[in-house]
Amino acid sequence: LSPSRAVSQPAGANYEESEVPDYTLPDPLTAEDGSRISSPERWRDSRRPEILRQFEGLMYGKTPGGRPDAMRWEVIESATDALGGAAKRKQVRIFFSGRADGPRMDLLLYTPADATGPVPTFLGLNFKGNHTVFPDPAITIPEGADESSRGDRRGRWPVDEIVGRGFGLATAFYFDIDPDVKDQWRDGVHPLFYAEGQDRPLPDEWGSIGAWAWGLSRALDYLETDEDVDGARVVVLGHSRLGKTSLWAGAQDDRFALVISNDSGCGGAALSRRRFGETVERINTSFPHWFSDTFNEFNADEDSLPFDQHMLIALIAPRPVLVCSAEGDLWADPRGEFLSAYHASPVFELLGTDGIAGVEEMPPVNELVGGTIGYHVRPGEHDVTMRDWEVFMEFADRHLGREESR
Ligand code: GTR
Q: Which of 141, 176, 136, 125 is nearest to 159 (CA)?
């Protein structure tokens, strides 16, 4: 049940700012035909779909379909006295194809017991199973795991604090959607969309990140129906490969009210053209199943991409986006993550928001900066810490509010 791994900061990668090559970023507000995008309408009706198609066709791969007609869910367990009485707990089994023997995802949901109405809710995939996020004996254990790992990712999921501040938390194990292994594309949700005779995604179709993002949208399909959750205030978040995923989910599905990327690095918030830390070639070599096959064409040729990752963030505009980095996580290129946030701002401004709010420089550690686009870097390594969650919650409070539900 272990996620695929790469060496985390291998030799041979560039960690020197002075070695970052010169590069020119594509302008999100200049269309493919060279025309200038100067109205919100043209952004929405023409430029945004154009960029979305480029990310689909060249990088993450096309998502072949939305919610299957036969998809259904069952509440398999619930309690009103979880977390010592502080929370309601619900576990919902989502059968993606409707079939009990088809791929399915268990969604774990905690909401504050004292809420007087539906609450804003964080939704994020987890790496090792729902039972690892909190030592709650009622949480189901995925096949292949056992009791020994119950609660062992608790440090990344401060459930008490989240619920104590009036938020809901929903999470699912990413393997439920697509196991993170270089398989032959037989497992997970990919086969649900194969045409007759097809046995793997086409070169420009989705890899695993696309599938995980799709799964987040299916989780939202459920959350929109849950009376304890405010479906119009669902925050999609993720760390690392799952931060790449939350950005892609937020870019494609505008029902997500707010998007958070934590240490998402290459293929996430970091600018590819900087080739700092992990590069396109490196990620496609270590994790050939994450992106579409077509993305390999840009190995060591980042400058030929018609976009860079600032344009992924721009796709989320005008909804709020928070980019979080860790100072010591050079593999994920903290400065490249900041620069993406920064260079997405003109789109947010065109749409009438304050974007990065005039911030010109990467901030010192522990200072949340920006406006509709937030940026924060904390000291330390590649991880999700309590400090990260404080920033997630502060940003969500600012942009979504929660007063009316308490
Ligand atoms: C690393 C990978 C990164 C990041 C990370 C993770 O090995 O190179 O892109 O995704 O894994 O997801 O933990």
A: 136
| Alpha-helical regions (H) of 137-257 | 159-164, 208-223, 241-252
82 C-alpha vs ligand 1 centroid, how far in Å?
A: 33
- For residue 60 the two structure tokens come to 């993450």
Q: What is the pLDDT of residue 4?
A: 54
Distance in Å, CA 262 to ligand 1 centroid: 12
Rounded to whole angstroms, the Cα distance separating 13 from 276 reads 7
Active site residue 240: yes
Are 149 and 131 a contacting pair, CB within 8 Å? yes
Ligand 1 is surrounded, with C-beta below 6 A, by 5-6, 8, 240-241, 265-266, 278, 283, 286
Q: What predicted TM-score, i.e. pTM, was given to this entire model? A: 0.96
Maximum C-alpha span of the chain = 60
pLDDT tens, residue by residue, 232-256: 999 999 999 999 999 999 999 999 9
Residue of the CA atom closest to atom 12 of ligand 1: 241
Measured from the Cα of 382, ligand 1's closest atom is 13
Measured between alpha carbons, how far is 119 from 135 in angstroms, rounded to an integer?
23
Q: Tokens for 371?
A: 């406006």
Ligand 1: centre distance to CA 238 (Å): 12
Q: pLDDT digits over 94-145, tens only? A: 999 999 999 999 999 999 999 999 999 999 999 999 999 999 999 999 999 9
How many angstroms separate the CA atoms of 363 and 357, rounded?
Answer: 13
Length of the chain: 406
User: Catalytic site residue 382?
Assistant: yes
Q: What is the ipTM of this complex?
A: 0.94
